[in-house]
């Protein structure tokens, strides 16, 4: 008899991973398994193609690292020895441990730990938040990314909607500041190229000569953490040379005189000394900026990850106001647009007030696990891989190794963190559950349905946390417990968005999908003005807003280690598919000074830890800067440690942000 023909279908979805583009997707599903993933044109930014890494999703879904069943630790902590158990046993155990922690040591002894593994609206801050709130757990400040940028954008503009990515084609000058879209959000690249073909100039500010820096009219390569100097020198020049748009500022801004005063000491010479960028290039940059319209600044996240990060981003964002670059299509700035959805999405039926328990800064996970009082007794990790992604990795690992800590890891994969767990719970992948997905670069919003059944016994976050609430007797009447009910509640107040989703399969924000700043989108500050020196930010920053903190390098550790995103992973997601060992990129001059050649294995070290990797010589780096990819798993290096073993858990000037790029190191040849 002939074999039955395989059932083959095409289903639509969208990508909720932490990337600005939020691609619209099409999945080919054969006999209940995703065999192929590609882009569609539903999102005008996607334009029918997706990145090479997400194309590899089927390998992630059904590969050897997929977590398929609940399991309990049977070997020593961190040994990775586990025994399969049933969901019933797993949920009973998790509930018992949560109850025990709350009753014996108080709710704050429970620490939920999550970040942006999925940017979907259902897998975070729904039933999970309800569980931890009702337990009176410690709260988590989600600061590992975008916290300084978010504080700066909120302080100056109340998070105004930014220039849409397709509108980049209208700009006459594009400034890419601390962002590498060729890796971290590829769909804007064709719009930048289109603008260049039409005569636009391109400026890239980045310590590395990135692919787009090679195509730029001007590349400024600052020492990591010194962008504040560049922006302040530009602001000073605009005011001093009569190029500031005083009319715009009088009508739309506060703090103008104070900003001008703070910029005054920043001559090109002083800024050149602080940033390592020649004074002539600084002047060329600001003249180009002043003379071009529409002029657009695309601010990324690369320049927030240091001690001056918040002030640097704030100063860069002040530029379009000072120079009067708003009000035209393709002029202004683009940052994260995640806040544009809050006006139309109603969270009232999903949220409930958090209890006034202590807040833990996630960048201090190691210290918290080792030193907090009351001690953390139960760590519940989901949507996050802290053993790989948080700073001060050695400290994080020492914390995870504590015998008196019970760690639950709810994951899709056997990550570095899952190996430290006492209990692992298998999570569904976004192609296996329902989700609400919002773009933070492109202006799109989707409602995903699962395209394939879960691999193994994986379950969605919403269901697992709802189940734990019930087991702990914490349910309340009216609790929404399913993805569908939560999605309906979130969309309940926006008839427009519901209608667009039904009709088009995609919805836009209230400001429209191509807002012109100061025409269609205004600051969401109470007075709708730009606040150039907001008081709250000024109080928060250790040296006041726009105060410059010196480079943390020393004679012992002179090299700045940066760890930017690469096209291979999204943070550490997909890290299991990186098969070749990682390499440390070193400028030939720095290598030569240390007797190091390409291919040599080195020890990269400082007082926090060390990593062992081979060297790749790269003349595109600024001398004095070395680079190791973000998001590596321990298996990618010879020492089992990554860039985060060298990254300090010091905090940025605003938002309690991470300072990955303040890592200062030395390198020695081993072999
Ligand atoms: N492929 C891929 N895409 C991603 C991600 C990923 O890991 N992989 N991550 C996603 C996430 S979570 C985020 S937050 C974004 C991040 O994406 P981006 O905003 O592009 O940020 P990074 O990759 O951290 O750094 C961007 C650039 O900043 C430079 N840089 C480092 N320090 C400094 C500095 O002090 N000043 C200046 N001017 N530049 C500096 C780096 O050399 C790098 O080229 O991308 C998202 N998209
Ligand atoms: N050295 C260095 N380190 C960095 C950075 C850097 O620049 N340098 N950048 C930082 C940045 S920008 C960020 S955003 C952070 C991100 O760091 P993390 O928040 O740790 O994000 P990911 O590494 O992507 O890990 C997310 C995990 O969530 C899981 N996951 C995804 N969806 C679900 C789900 O629906 N349910 C459950 N239960 N699990 C799910 C995935 O399998 C994945 O293992 O990393 C930071 N780390
Ligand atoms: Mo991030």
3D structure, described in words:
- This protein starts with 7 loop residues before the first strand and ends with a strand.
- Strands 5-4-17-16-15-6 form a six-stranded mixed sheet, with helices on one face. Strands 22-24-23-26-21-25 form a six-stranded mixed sheet. Strands 10-9-8-12-13 form a five-stranded parallel sheet, sandwiched between helices.
- The longest helix is centred in the N-terminal third of the chain and has 19 residues, at 87-105.
- With 671 residues, the chain is α/β, with parallel strands linked by helices.
- Helix 14 runs parallel beside helix 16.
- It folds into four domains: 8-62, Phosphorylase Kinase, domain 1; 71-143 and 344-500, Rossmann fold (3-Layer(aba) Sandwich), CATH 3.40.50.740; 163-334 and 521-540, Dimethylsulfoxide Reductase, domain 2 (3-Layer(aba) Sandwich), CATH 3.40.228.10; 559-669, Barwin-like endoglucanases (Beta Barrel), CATH 2.40.40.
- Strand 2 (24-30) and strand 3 (33-39) form a beta hairpin.
- The chain has 21 helices and 26 strands.
- Helices cover 28% and strands 17% of the residues.
- Bound molecules: ligand MGD (2 copies) and molybdenum atom (MO).
- Molybdenum atom (MO) is lined by residues 18, 145, 301.
């Amino acid at each position: 008899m002939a074999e039955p023909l395989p059932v083959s279908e095409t289903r639509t979805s969208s990508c909720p991973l932490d990337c600005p583009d939020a691609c619209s997707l099409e999945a080919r599903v054969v006999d209940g398994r995703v065999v192929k993933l590609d882009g569609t044109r539903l999102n005008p930014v996607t334009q029918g193609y997706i990145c090479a890494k997400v194309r590899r999703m089927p390998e992630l879904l059904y590969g050897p690292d997929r977590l398929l069943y609940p399991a309990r630790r049977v070997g020593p902590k961190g040994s990775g020895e586990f025994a399969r158990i049933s969901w019933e046993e797993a949920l009973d155990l998790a509930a018992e441990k949560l109850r025990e922690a709350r009753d014996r040591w108080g709710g704050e002894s429970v620490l939920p730990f999550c970040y942006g593994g999925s940017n979907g609206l259902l897998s975070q801050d729904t039933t999970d938040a309800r569980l931890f709130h009702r337990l009176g757990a410690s709260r988590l400040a989600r600061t590992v990314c975008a916290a300084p940028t978010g504080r700066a954008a909120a302080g100056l503009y109340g998070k105004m909607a930014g220039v849409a990515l397709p509108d980049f084609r209208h700009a006459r000058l594009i400034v890419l500041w601390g962002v590498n879209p060729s890796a971290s959000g590829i769909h804007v690249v064709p719009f930048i190229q289109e603008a260049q073909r039409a005569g636009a100039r391109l400026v890239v500010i980045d310590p590395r000569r990135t692919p787009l820096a090679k195509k730029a009219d001007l590349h400024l390569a600052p020492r990591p953490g010194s962008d504040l100097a560049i922006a302040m020198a530009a602001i000073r020049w605009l005011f001093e040379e009569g190029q500031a748009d005083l009319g715009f500022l009088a009508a739309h801004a506060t703090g103008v005189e104070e900003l001008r005063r703070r910029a005054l000491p920043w001559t090109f010479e002083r800024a050149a000394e602080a940033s390592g960028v020649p004074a002539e290039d600084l002047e060329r940059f600001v003249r180009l900026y002043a003379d071009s319209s529409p002029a657009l600044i695309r601010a990324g996240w690369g320049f927030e990850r240091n001690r001056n990060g918040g002030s640097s981003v704030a100063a860069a964002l002040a530029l379009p106001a000072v120079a009067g670059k708003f009000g035209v299509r393709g002029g202004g700035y683009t940052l994260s647009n995640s806040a544009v959805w809050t006006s139309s999405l109603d969270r009232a039926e999903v949220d409930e007030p958090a209890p006034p328990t202590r807040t833990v800064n996630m960048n201090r996970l190691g210290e918290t696990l080792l030193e907090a009082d009351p001690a953390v007794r139960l760590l519940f990790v989901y949507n996050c891989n802290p053993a790989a992604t948080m700073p001060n990795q050695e400290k994080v690992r020492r914390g995870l190794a504590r015998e008196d800590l019970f760690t639950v890891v709810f994951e899709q994969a056997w990550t570095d963190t899952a190996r430290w767990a006492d209990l692992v719970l298998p999570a569904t992948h976004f192609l296996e559950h329902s989700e609400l997905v919002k773009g933070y670069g492109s202006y799109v919003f989707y409602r995903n349905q699962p395209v394939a059944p879960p691999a193994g016994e994986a379950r969605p976050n919403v269901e697992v946390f709802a189940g734990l609430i019930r087991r702990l007797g914490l349910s309340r009447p009216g609790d929404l417990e399913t993805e569908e009910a939560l999605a309906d509640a979130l969309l309940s107040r926006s008839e427009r968005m519901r209608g667009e989703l039904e009709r088009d399969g995609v919805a836009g924000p209230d400001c429209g999908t191509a807002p012109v700043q100061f025409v269609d989108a205004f600051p969401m500050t109470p007075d709708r003005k730009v606040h150039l020196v907001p008081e709250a930010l000024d109080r928060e920053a250790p040296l006041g807003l726009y105060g410059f903190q010196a480079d943390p390098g020393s004679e012992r550790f002179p090299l700045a280690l940066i760890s930017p995103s690469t096209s291979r992973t999204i943070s550490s997601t997909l890290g299991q598919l990186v098969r070749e060992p990682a390499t440390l990129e070193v400028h030939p001059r720095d290598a030569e000074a240390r007797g190091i050649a390409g291919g040599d294995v080195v020890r990269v070290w400082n007082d926090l830890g060390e990593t062992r990797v081979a060297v790749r010589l790269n003349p595109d780096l600024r001398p004095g800067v070395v680079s190791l990819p973000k998001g590596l798993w321990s298996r990618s290096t010879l020492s089992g440690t990554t860039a985060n073993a060298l990254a300090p858990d010091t905090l940025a000037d605003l938002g309690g942000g991470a300072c990955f790029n303040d890592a200062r190191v030395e390198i020695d040849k081993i072999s």
